[in-house]
Specification:
The complex is a heterodimer of chains A (326) and B (364). Helices cover 38% and strands 17% of the residues of chain A. Chain A has helices spanning 4-18, 42-46, 58-70, 82-85, 89-96, 99-102, 132-136, 149-161, 209-223, 241-251, 266-277, 300-306, 310-320; strands spanning 2-3, 22-26, 51-53, 74-78, 112-116, 142-144, 166-170, 178-179, 194-197, 202-206, 228-232, 235-237, 254-257, 287-289. In chain A, the strands form 3 sheets. Chain A has a 7-stranded mixed sheet with strand order 3-2-4-5-7-6-12, sandwiched between helices. In chain A, strands 9-11-10-13-14 form a 5-stranded mixed sheet, with helices on both faces. Chain A has a two-stranded antiparallel ribbon with strand order 1-8. In chain A, helix 9 (209-223) links the parallel strand 10 (202-206) and strand 11 (228-232). Chain B is α/β, with parallel strands linked by helices and 364 residues long. Helices cover 40% and strands 9% of the residues of chain B. Chain B contains 13 helices and 7 strands. The chains are: A alpha/beta (326), B alpha/beta (364). Chains A and B meet through helix 1, helix 3, helix 5, helix 6 and helix 8 of A and helix 5, helix 6 and helix 12 of B.
């Protein structure tokens, strides 16, 4: 049993031992042991050439990572939170995602940009955003979002070895989550989703923290005889849509749960794919649960109203099944 | 600044090569406007005419193995670095035989084989990338320098400052070259910045800097050579501001109202090709007929390039999707193949060449 924090740490440690080209950079990743302690102990083991503390300069950090990937280093650039990655969007979207294409395939960008995304605990509007849709929108980027320690370690190892730029979005609330992690060498292919809970009455598609929320909702629903199937795509780009379609064709109903705002979220894309490909199988419209369309408020009661809770998932499932509220 | 002077006298072969390189750039660039107006080239086209001494001087100051990265006024730079002009012309035409198979265009010319790392359209956006290339080169134990070109306008961008800060902090082997041609698009220097010596920005991070005029290719070669030696031996990066002038507008759509015809004509008196040719003849290294023969030869080469580009095929529709992603073994291909941007991507199991040295040490 490992926490997600430990699992991520192990992934980086193993990959840095395996391949001299892998190195880590970011704010506080070294001497401070990581703002969220994900990189604890790595400086001591690998030294300051391979674990590099940086000034607070996201564009320079991401740019250095992207440029070093040009000639075959495998940088892991940590964004203290993805909110700050907005400062590096030019490096990510205009450069990392595009120079393979613009060069006609001459160069590749084997970079990982990782850090926590989404809400934490009362860190308010500028520190709580979930904009995975922005990255998944861009051809050239891979976007991974693990929800368990096993997924986190397996996907991060694959992301580091992969030759595409991977946006690896973790979640602070999940860092303490414990789960079984294989002892043996393994990785999880990017783009391979997983059915986290088998069911027959409704398909709930959810990733990262919302997958945990969906599983909690499924437990409660089971008590009233509703068996929800929870599908965790684990990667948003490429997206394991066949896994979702197989489930929806079985259950006939689909609820998508995400922390992002509703307008043009990634869930909006998924719902389009599902209604288009599973139209005949659907018995009710695809429903979506999102944060309300507002910046994250500070007060804890308002934050609770913002982040999707199991109760909202349950309510949506009832709606999909045309059940009245109890 | 300290740093050994790398070379003293130039050999005759190199003297002529410098002349030929500058003429090649001039003839190539000057062929473009007509082709553009004929619709053979499209989009943004930023020409280098007038600035040849900078690109060629730098290329002759660098080691062959060094890296170069630049913005969008880069045709002259990549030709100076050693890419054959025919694939550059074909890329400008958008043909399949272009350096990027038609996917890049004028602003995105890349040539991995001569270590020219692009070709970028975001002003100042590529400057942080230079740090990364330098970092990797040092990590690998290569004694290579990265030369990073940008303009006076780019020296106002945040990314530029961040990059300088990081480069100096880690003493990365980068020579940052600001080609100051007095205008950021249509805005003259003194309307963009309180300091008109852009190299002084280096002071803010404690970096070595120098400003000099770049009309004399030999001066460029010597000064850049010294800066490169300084960076290469680990003494730290250098910011050079090289004053130069472009004869053409910012791009093809620039009516050039921000400067007078008289100014342009006056600056043509310090045409770097004229200065160099005159020196070669005055010092009796070469005769006028010999130089004119080079001119004719180069013009013929450029004509051949245009013919090559004209006759080259267009990229097929499949090329649209081929190079978005790499089909690595770590991707779940069943999912990837549902995505058009993935489906056509090329699987490259074999490492292309020594450029991609992946030193995978097996786990202990």
């Amino acid at each position: 049993m490992l926490t997600m924090r430990e699992a991520l740490n192990q992934a980086m440690r193993e990959e840095m031992s395996r391949d001299q080209n892998v190195f880590l950079l970011g704010e506080e990743v070294g001497a401070y042991q990581g703002a969220y302690k994900i990189t604890q102990g790595l400086l001591a083991q690998f030294g300051e050439w391979r674990v590099r503390d940086t000034p607070i300069a996201e564009e320079a950090i991401a740019g250095l990572a992207v440029g070093s990937a040009f000639i075959g280093l495998r940088p892991i650039a940590e964004m203290m939170t993805f909110n700050f990655a907005i400062l590096a969007m030019d490096m990510i979207v205009n450069h990392a995602a595009k120079y393979r294409y613009m060069s006609g395939g001459q160069i590749r960008c084997p970079m990982v940009l990782r850090g926590p995304s989404g809400a934490a605990a009362q860190v308010a509007a500028q520190h709580s955003q979930a904009f995975e849709a922005w990255f998944a929108h861009v051809p050239g980027l891979v976007v991974a979002m693990p929800s368990t320690p096993k997924d986190a370690k397996g996907l991060l190892k694959a992301a580091i070895r992969d030759d595409n730029p991977v946006i690896f979005m973790e979640n602070e609330v999940l860092y303490n989550l414990k789960g079984e992690v294989p002892d043996e060498e393994y990785h999880i292919p990017l783009g391979q989703g997983e059915v986290k809970r088998l069911g027959k009455d409704v398909t709930i598609v959810a990733w990262s923290r919302c997958c945990v929320t969906a599983l909690a909702a499924a437990e409660t629903l089971a008590k009233e005889g509703i068996e929800a199937e929870v599908v965790d795509p684990r990667t948003l780009r490429p997206f394991d849509e066949d896994l979702v379609f197989d489930s929806v064709r079985k259950t006939g109903r689909c609820v998508i749960v995400e922390e992002a705002w509703p307008v043009a979220s990634f869930g909006a894309w998924v719902s389009d794919r599902v209604q288009r490909e599973c139209f005949d199988a659907l018995d009710s419209p695809v429903l979506r649960i999102n944060a309300p369309d507002v910046p994250m408020p500070y007060s804890k009661v308002l934050e609770k109203a913002y982040v999707p809770q199991p109760e909202r998932v349950i309510e949506a499932v009832h709606q999909a099944l045309y059940r009245r509220e109890h | 600044m300290t740093g050994k002077k790398e070379r003293a006298l130039l050999e005759p072969r190199e003297l002529l090569a410098i002349y030929r390189d500058m003429v090649r750039i001039r003839e190539f660039e000057e062929a473009c406007p007509k082709l553009y107006s004929q619709g053979k080239m499209g989009g943004f086209l930023h020409l280098y005419s007038g600035q040849e001494a900078v690109g060629v001087g730098v290329a002759h100051a660098m080691h062959h193995e060094d890296y170069m990265i630049a913005a969008y006024r880069e045709h002259g730079l990549i030709l100076a670095k050693g890419t054959p002009p025919d694939v550059v012309m074909a890329e400008l035409f958008g043909k399949a035989t272009g350096s990027s198979k038609g996917l890049g265009g004028s602003m995105h010319i890349f040539d991995r084989s001569v270590r020219f790392m692009g070709g970028y359209g975001i002003v100042g956006g590529h400057v942080p990338l230079a740090n990364g290339v330098a970092w990797a080169a040092r990590h690998r134990g290569e004694h290579r320098v990265v030369v990073c070109f940008f303009g006076d306008g780019a020296a106002n961008q945040g990314a530029f400052f961040e990059a300088l800060c990081l480069a100096q902090l880690h003493k990365l082997p980068v020579v940052f070259i600001c080609e100051n041609n007095f205008y950021a698009m249509g805005t003259p220097l003194d309307r963009q910045s309180s300091l008109t010596d852009m190299s002084l920005r280096a002071r803010g991070v404690g970096m070595e800097r120098e400003q000099f005029e770049g009309y004399d290719v030999e001066v460029v070669r010597d000064r850049v050579g010294a800066a490169a030696a300084h960076a290469r031996d680990g003494s730290g990066p250098v910011l050079l501001e090289i004053v130069t002038y472009r004869y053409r507008g910012h791009s093809m759509s620039d009516p050039g109202k921000y400067r007078s015809k008289e100014e342009v004509e006056q600056m043509m008196q310090v045409d770097p090709i004229f200065i160099w040719g005159k020196r070669l003849v005055d010092q009796e290294r070469f005769t006028m007929p010999e130089l004119e023969a080079v001119d004719k030869e180069v013009i013929a080469v450029v004509d051949e390039c245009v013919k090559f580009a004209d006759e080259s095929p267009w990229p097929t529709h499949e090329v649209l999707y081929e190079d978005v992603y790499v089909r690595s073994p770590y991707i779940h291909l069943k999912a990837a193949d549902k995505d058009p941007a993935w489906r056509a991507s090329v699987r490259e199991d074999k490492l292309p060449d020594e450029f991609w040295r992946h030193a995978v040490k097996e786990a202990k």
